[in-house]
Amino acid sequence: MLSALVKEHQNKQQIRREEQEQKRKEAVQASNKLTQALVDHLNVGVAQAYLNQKRLDTEASQLEQNATQFQKATNQWLGLVSSFASALKEVGHVQNWSNTIHKDMEEISKTLEIAYKTSQST
């Protein structure tokens, strides 16, 4: 009778150990799944951040190229405007020169008229 109780007790302990081992394996599997899910979730964020950074780098490079082209175009426009301003100054000088010659010619014309009238009256 005592041996039967001992055997029964040992069988129950064996069954509890097996149940415990099964629950331990299930807990390990659950923790592995949780860990994998967390890593996957973090990897998605990291991958998205990497793609965003890559896109930002590309756009920054494109912006730099556009800025360089804009700077070149601006320098060309500044050169053209400077040339245009110089040409306008020259036109102003030519106009001033032609006005001066026109006045001189009018004076010469008036002087010749007066001289002609004077020579006709004498």
From TrEMBL:
Residue ranges the record marks as coiled coil: none
Region (Disordered): 1-28
GO CC, any one term: BLOC-1 complex
Basic and acidic residues bias locations: 1-27
Family matches, as InterPro entries: BLOC1S1
BP term (GO), one: endosomal transport
Similarity comment: Belongs to the BLOC1S1 family.
Protein name: Biogenesis of lysosome-related organelles complex 1 subunit 1
Source organism of the structure: Armadillidium nasatum
